[in-house]
Design brief:
The structure holds two protein chains of two kinds. By secondary structure, chain A is an alpha/beta fold. Helix content of chain A is 36%, strand content 25%. Chain A has a single domain, classed as Vaccinia Virus protein VP39 (Rossmann fold, 3-Layer(aba) Sandwich). By secondary structure, chain B is of the alpha/beta class. Classes of the chains: A alpha/beta, B alpha/beta.
Chain lengths: 197, 374
């Protein structure tokens, strides 16, 4: 399992209800179900991935988060997880509002556009950055709304969204983001992971 | 009892059942069939519900019609619903014509066929009758309930009536409430039957009317694209148009064939009663417009399946079920299978569909058995 999922699963307490948005092939869901006895559900737009999940015994609904989240009742999950997908939505703010409505807490991870390699790529090459985490060209990337760790924190502050935990991944190493190291992490981390409510 | 179906498996239900129409019935027959073996713990039973024109003969050769069972693609040894592993039960619905209590049976009070004196039945009546069969077989909790189309409606009604009786539920290509379009199409079929001068005449059957009803219905089971690809404008005989009303086009000939073979195996009055039951089905209304209340006590794990080209019970209607289940926090998965075969996809060899059912059942079965070991 990738490092990011390790971080997410450590944040999630055992025996809780979890909704994984864009759950892919269900790797995280399966881990949570088997190892932490979580009651997990998933939402995934890709048919073949939904079928994979169902065959693993995971309850996953085929659908698009921008349309489907309305159907879930308020605070019906202890955690809602959105892994590296926020930037791909047409209306990320609305999706985020839905997540906060459905989940008692929400875990959001974002690929950090403030990462130094991204900055240097644009600065020196003058073309849209392509990195390990952002492998696509500007014309075929699913990412519509890239942001930096700092951007996301600013957004939460502006919208009075409470950040309960902020973590980051720097070369596969997990660390916490604090007020003091924010500038630093915003340059050197590839991924930000936030627990918000 | 009519002679054809005399030798098939039947349970005479002694308890009385109050039908939704108010009439109380008792000592009525329910014809059924089982496949595979029930295990010691009675934990491998699957109740399959048949659709409008199906019957209890799910797989193998139907001993009465001599044709393949309606779900032979999915049910059998080594198949998606593997009868080497599971015990599959299927009953002919109330109102049916394969040995269960229906208009083709003889009314013991008059010694005549029930025909249209048979009481109007509902999906709920059908499901309640089948619960007696489970009691008779000593099955307290099913591994799964499943069915497509009207079978799916019975699945929904079953989990709503008996929220703790199924570990899992697979409603396929169905709806929680028959739409105006569904009712309209059924009414078309009924009117075709009733317009036949042989309808309600003694010693005759409205074959023409029933055949037309079947032809019309058959079109609704296929998709436009599927029809176009299979038949297009192909002519029946290689030559040119005959400038007559014979079956010039292959599609005409195909539909005529479908109609004519159907009348050999199905009773016109059963067709009236069962389509009526489908039209009356409205699970929303049973719960005052709040479908999620139908599922609020359910413990079942759901796998809702629809087909991309099904316009009779389109994905959006299947999704309403999913939304209602989500709204009450039920355990639900949903997938729309890509297929150009229309509503009939659930009866046909659609590998992705069969794979989904097979693996869902398998994972449910394993979960139950693991739980028991702990």
């Amino acid at each position: 399992m990738k490092k990011e999922f390790e971080v997410i699963s450590q944040i999630i307490q055992n025996n809780k209800r979890v909704l994984d948005i864009g759950c892919g092939d269900g790797t995280l869901m399966e881990y949570l179900k088997v190892n932490q006895q979580n009651d997990v559900r998933g939402l995934e737009p890709e048919k073949n991935l939904v079928q994979k999940c169902i065959s693993k015994g995971l309850s996953v609904i085929e659908g698009d988060a921008e349309k489907e989240l309305i159907q879930f009742p308020e605070k019906s999950f202890d955690y809602v997880v959105l892994s590296q997908t926020l930037q791909a939505f047409l209306r990320p703010e609305e999706v985020l509002n839905q997540l906060l409505r459905i989940g008692k807490q929400t875990i959001v991870s974002i690929p950090n556009f403030g990462y130094w390699k991204v900055r240097l790529h644009l600065l020196f090459k003058g073309t849209m950055p392509i990195t390990k985490n952002l492998p696509n060209e500007w014309y075929n990337t699913p990412n519509l709304h890239m942001c930096t760790i700092q951007d996301f924190v600013n957004f939460c502050n502006k919208k009075s969204i409470k950040i309960n935990k902020s973590m980051c991944l720097t070369n596969e190493k997990i660390s916490e983001i604090t007020k003091g190291n924010m500038q630093y992490k915003n340059i050197f981390s590839q991924l930000g992971i936030f627990l918000i409510q | 009892m009519n002679s054809e179906t005399e030798n098939i498996k039947k349970l005479i239900i002694n308890q009385s059942l109050e039908l939704d129409c108010g009439k109380i019935i008792k000592n009525f027959p329910l014809a059924y069939e089982t496949y595979g073996a029930l295990n010691k713990s009675k934990s491998n039973a699957i109740l399959a519900f048949h659709a409008l024109t199906g019957d209890q003969f799910v797989t193998n050769i139907n001993p009465i019609t001599k044709r393949e069972g309606w779900w032979t693609t999915a049910v059998g040894p080594g198949k998606a619903i593997d009868t080497n592993k599971y015990f599959v039960i299927c009953a002919n619905v109330l109102g049916g014509c394969m040995g269960s209590y229906g208009p083709k049976e003889i009314n013991p009070e008059t010694n005549k066929l029930f025909a249209t004196t048979f009481p109007v039945i509902t999906i709920r009546d059908m499901v309640k009758a089948q619960k007696y069969l489970l009691d008779h077989l000593g099955i307290k909790k099913l591994l799964a309930v499943t069915g497509g189309s009207m079978g799916g409606m019975q699945v929904l009604q079953f989990v709503s009536l008996y929220p703790e009786m199924a570990h899992s539920a697979i409603p396929i290509a169905c709806s929680a409430s028959h739409s105006a379009q569904n009712i309209a199409l059924n009414e078309l079929g009924r009117q075709a039957i009733m317009a036949d001068p042989n309808w309600e005449k003694e010693n005759s059957t409205p074959d023409k009317g029933l055949a037309v009803a079947r032809m019309a219905a058959h079109i609704t089971y296929l998709s436009k694209q599927g029809l176009q690809e299979k038949f297009g404008r192909k002519l029946q005989d290689k030559g040119s148009l005959k400038f007559s009303f014979d079956a010039d086009f292959q599609i005409e000939s195909y539909l005529r064939y479908q109609g004519s073979t159907f009348v050999d195996r199905f009773d016109a009055n059963s067709y009236l009663y069962i389509t009526r039951a489908m039209d009356y089905f409205d699970l929303n209304k049973q719960f005052n417009g709040n479908l999620s209340l139908a599922f609020k006590n359910t413990k079942s794990k759901f796998c809702v399946i629809s087909f991309s080209s099904d316009w009779l019970y389109p994905t959006i209607e299947n999704k309403e079920i999913v939304i209602a289940l989500n709204a009450c926090g039920a355990n639900v998965g949903f997938v729309e299978i890509n297929s150009d075969k229309g509503h009939d996809s659930f009866l046909l060899d659609v590998p992705e569909f069969l794979k989904t059912i097979s693996e869902f059942l398998n994972s449910t079965y394993n979960e139950i058995n693991n739980e028991k070991r702990i």
